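Hi,

Apologies if this is the wrong queue. I'm a grad student, and the batch job for DUF4276 family protein from Lacihabitans soyangensis produced an output file that my downstream script rejects. I'm not sure whether the problem is my script or the file. Here is the sequence I used:
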Amino acid sequence: MVKIGFLVEGDTEKKIIRSQMFNDFLKANNLEAIPTLFPVKGNMGKDVFKNIDKINSLIDILKEKGAEHIFVIRDLEDLECVVLARNEINSDSVQKIIVEKTMESWFLADSEALQKVFSADDIKVEFPEKIENPFNALKQISKEKENRGISDKLIFAARMLSNGFSIENAAKHPNCDSAKYWCYVELSG
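Support response: The file is valid. Your script probably expects a header line. Output copied below for reference.
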């Protein structure tokens, strides 16, 4: 088993990485996530990723804990292109995963989990990574299907995970290239 570490932007990514489904996916690919995830609560990942001293100290800690490869997961939401987001991650010793828009766009790509969460067979988002604000789109779906919005991203992430959300399912969506790239390019290479 190859041990891997993660530097993530926020708590939603942490919740997904700590999920049993994600760890089963890693195991099937002969990978094991070390339990330590950075940055710790209260530190915004994007700011940490830009600071070479901070990111290097976190990389060193993950390597001391046994990580052979380190993945940095960052949302694109505030930048114009993937190249700019990759360049903001101030390290060449990590594998950089840029999620188009936000992690919630991957939620929108997993139609199967969305349909279970909202008990509706008619939910299918054609271009999840083209939606300007994926979390607002999820709130709108919730209003339409449940007559209430979503107030907390982490609670909603837990609902998605308990209803089968996986990055692998998001990667199967024909228009969710960032999930596809991560599942089939980064993890296999």
